[in-house]
Design goal:
Length: 88
């Protein structure tokens, strides 16, 4: 269990370096990630890192591909079905 916690902490520190100055913001219902090409490629991992603290599943809800804009996500109790794909 300690090993998983250490790995999760290392992953979150690594991912936080690619999401801009202010970093991701979120709580138990969802959040936002500042957009950049690098953050977009890691968006689901960043979102899942936040949602997993509440035993939920991350679902990307919106991506605005403009610097200064955000990638939005929600935290769901159930895993997303086949109709809710993560399309990039």
């Amino acid at each position: 269990m300690k090993r998983q916690a250490v790995l999760a902490a290392a992953l979150s520190l690594t991912l936080a370096s690619c999401v801009g100055v202010y970093g991701p913001k979120g709580n138990d219902i969802g959040g936002i990630i500042p957009w950049s090409p690098e953050a977009e490629s890691n968006a689901l991992n960043i979102a899942q890192s936040n949602c997993s603290r509440f035993n939920k599943y991350a679902v990307i809800t919106s991506i605005h591909r403009v610097y200064g804009d955000y990638i939005g996500y929600s935290c769901w109790w159930r895993p997303p079905g086949r109709t809710h794909r993560h399309i990039y």
